[in-house]
Design brief:
The protein is α/β, with parallel strands linked by helices. 45% of the residues lie in helices and 15% in strands.
């Protein structure tokens, strides 16, 4: 019995923690050859050991001007092609919008937006002969206003617009572009944020109370949506958003 991603070579950025880690595990379990990237060499090595075969790690910072080309070239060298790209690497930011320094704004956009554009450009070139699938990990905050999250939301909103435009532009070349928009997800980043609140238990109850499904997303929930969009099951799906948010943005 074959898995639906058998033989596909997929790049996952920001794969050394949280949603990226879960996505790498899911894609590998579905049969993909996975090129994982991240800045933390130790965690990258740990992920590689946990997966065993059909995985290759490249230490990379998506803000490096050379990173996109080097990562995609490494995928071709390791697996012979690039069939999929998951743009997951991201930087969080929380502050009142008037308190955000322009240096902080630029840093957030360098990772969350410009890094995605660079990886998308490199992937499109690598996929130009045989097509492929690009999945951008955005956020519920691209579709809902939340105080103190304006800068982060703007960076993800830009990627939402990029998803729509590139889906149309790349469609004649057989390259699909979609996005997964997670809601609040129980990742190490969320746990650290929660631990820093005055009353973590109360804060978590308040967060969950806003979610119609009554729980936080798990990284595996997001990874499942990514796997679908990369697969041939989604071969006629492009320019769409899967909101993995438990109904948060449907309210």
């Amino acid at each position: 019995m074959t898995s639906r991603l058998d033989g596909k070579a997929v790049v996952v950025t920001g794969a050394t923690s949280g949603i990226g880690w879960a996505t790498a595990l899911r894609l590998h379990a579905d049969g993909a050859n996975v090129l994982v990237t991240g800045r933390d060499v130790g965690r990258g090595a740990a992920l590689t050991r946990s997966l065993g075969d059909r995985v290759h790690f490249v230490a990379a910072d998506v803000t490096d001007p050379n990173a996109a080309g080097e990562v995609l070239a490494a995928c071709v060298e390791a697996f012979g092609a690039v069939d999929g790209l998951v743009n997951n690497a991201a930087l969080d930011h929380t502050s009142a919008v008037e308190d955000a320094s322009m240096d902080d704004v630029r840093t957030v956009f360098e990772v969350n937006t410009f890094g995605v554009i660079a990886m998308t450009q490199a992937a499109a070139r690598a996929m130009s002969r045989h097509g492929g699938s690009i999945v951008n990990v955005t956020s519920r905050l691209a579709f809902a206003g939340v105080p103190t999250m304006a800068v982060y939301a703007a960076s993800k909103g830009a990627v939402h617009a990029l998803t729509l435009a590139t889906a149309v532009e790349f469609a004649p070349r057989g390259i699909r572009v979609n996005e997964v928009a997670p809601g609040m997800t129980k990742t190490p980043l969320f746990d650290a944020w929660l631990a820093g609140s005055p009353d973590p238990a109360r804060t978590e109850r308040e967060v969950v109370s806003q979610i119609p499904s009554g729980r936080l997303a798990l990284p595996e929930d997001v990874a499942a949506a990514v796997a679908y969009l990369l697969s041939d099951d989604a071969r006629y799906v492009t320019g769409t958003t899967i909101r993995v948010d438990g109904g948060y943005t449907a309210r």
